[in-house]
Write a structure and sequence with these properties.
Elements lengths: L3 H13 L7 E4 L10 E5 L3 E7 L2 E6 L2 E7 L3 H19 L11 E2 L4 E5 L7 E7 L2 E6 L2 E5 L1
Parallel strand pairs: 1-2
Antiparallel strand pairs: 2-5, 3-4, 4-9, 5-8, 6-9, 7-8, 9-10
Length: about 140
């Protein structure tokens, strides 16, 4: 059975693929995006949080990096903020991830000049704090 955290990542990927015009969405990519706009999803591990009788709680903070291109800095920045807003709106719905998680929040966001081969690229790096619970000793079973 698949661990809850892997199921959550799959839901994130599925939802982000519904953004109109998105060219690429990938979990744990092996390189830079090929087409734009793109969002890469990074599994950055988790911390064990509060648990309870028969439960294990997790603080899971996957990272999203969204990439856009534009003919000018202003155009790229506008596209970047639009992509960011769409991603946050899709991922912070209730119930969180169809009930897989207790909570999902918009975390810190940083804007980067994408260090890629092409000029005119911007990126955002967004933390996505998620809290979820499993049965104690079985991270594949929801609590």
């Amino acid at each position: 059975m698949t661990a809850i955290r892997a199921q959550i990542l799959a839901v994130i990927e599925e939802r982000l693929k519904t953004i109109p015009g998105i060219a690429e969405v990938e979990i744990m990519p092996s390189g830079d995006p090929i087409s734009f706009p793109a969002i890469h999803i990074f599994d950055e591990g988790h911390k064990i949080a509060n648990g309870g009788a028969g439960l294990t709680g997790y603080d899971f903070v996957p990272g999203l990096v969204g990439y856009v291109s534009g003919s000018s800095g202003k155009e790229a920045h506008t596209r970047l903020t639009d992509l960011y807003a769409q991603a946050v709106a899709l991922l912070t719905t209730d119930p969180p991830f169809g009930g897989l998680a207790e909570s999902v929040d918009e975390g810190d966001m940083r804007i980067l000049i994408a260090p890629l081969e092409k000029a005119g690229l911007l990126a955002f790096d967004l933390d996505l704090p998620i809290t979820f619970f499993t049965r104690r000793g079985d991270p594949a079973q929801a609590a």
